[in-house]
Amino acid sequence: MKFTVSSQALLRNLQINSVSLASNPVMPILEDFLFQLKGNELEIITSTADVTTHSQMTVSNGVSGAIAVPGKTLLDTLKSMPEQPLDFEIDPDSCGITILSAAGKYKLVGQNASNYPEISRPGNEDKLILKGANLLNAIDKTIYATSNDEIRQTMRGVCMNIDFNHVTFVATDAHKLVKYSLLDIQSNVATSLILSKKSLLALRSILTKDAEVTVYYNKAKAYFEFAGILLSCRLIEGKFPDYNAVIPVDNPNKMKVNRLELLSALRRLAVFANKTTNQVVLNIQDKSLTISANDFDLNNEGTEQLVCEFQGEPMNLGLNAKFLIEMLSAIAQEEVEFELSDSNKPAILVPTEQDPGENILMLVVTNY
Predict the structure, then answer these.
(1) pTM higher than 0.90, yes or no?
(2) Which residues of 301-339 are buried (b: 16+ CB within 10 A; e: fewer)?
């Protein structure tokens, strides 16, 4: 096996694959990049227990073969190397790898490719097509709401609920909930997938806004294919909670407020809130929103007043400042609206204007 490749082009592909390069795995070979060369087409594969990444690139002077190349050694070598052609020569018997550059020669030992675990690929799975920008938005707007609870595994991921003409992404940790829908998305089937936080973080790090993403899925795995890259992930097993059941439907009290003004006030007042509860109290009147925070243990307190538009009876809400800051930071619109039932029921937060083709709803539990 041998080939010639641009050092920087190879480095770019290795960095893409490094999102699923295992660290201290049970199988040491998963610390390697799997190189599979057919003619002048080089496929690079990395895999953890949950996420697998494939990337494709064109090389020259190729002689087909396969080898598992030590990941960290190769990455560290290329990071400090200027752009130049590199010649790779692999001895299939000893798995010895020789790399020739313009001014140097490097030798390392890989592993037999046959020892690498079998990698699944999409076959006749159902599929749908998403824009990269939309998928990135879905990840950014939901991933922070996932749970860290080891017991409730399904809540540690994002539910991707596929319908015939839209896709809804939902995440919740039982204290906050985010429901983000992409409209006018065509699918031949209706189903639900639970994507792990780890796989979505890996996908987010390599996905570009201008990509067209084909999503293949079955009961066990999801595959995201775009721009010569294939990322597959194992789905979380189980049933996601019935999120629609916890969203209040009768919310006669509605408050509109400038998002950035509210966000800035919350960031300042969070300093004065109790560090365990992070609670702030919202006192909502006709045209006035007063936010207060107290930490009785340290005798700290702070109060700010904002202008708002409010329809309903005056009320007090106790909310977690940290959760509100996360939610307000995940949207870009100038103004947001709180839809409220009473002080004891969850508060709904939505932008006053939704982006075309999208719909987002956020829910935060009250505590007053």
Answers:
(1) yes
(2) ebebebebebebeebebebbbbbbbbbbebbeeebbbbb
> In Å, how far are 56, 152, 180, 312, 347 from 255, measured between CA atoms?
51, 34, 21, 8, 11
269 Cβ contact list (under 8 Å, min separation 6) = 280, 291, 292, 293, 302, 303, 304, 321
The tens digit of pLDDT for each residue in 102-130 reads 999 999 999 999 999 999 999 889 999 99
Residue 158 belongs to what domain range? Answer: 126-244
- Strand, coil or helix: 161: strand
How many angstroms separate the CA atoms of 73 and 76, rounded?
5
Torsion over CA of 304, 310, 312 and 315, rounded to 10 degrees?
A: -10
State pLDDT tens for residues 262-299: 999 999 999 999 999 999 999 999 999 999 999 988 89
Task: Using alpha carbons, select from 63, 73, 60 the residue that is nearest to residue 107.
Answer: 73
Are 233 and 267 members of one domain? no
Q: Do 132 and 238 fall into the same domain? A: yes
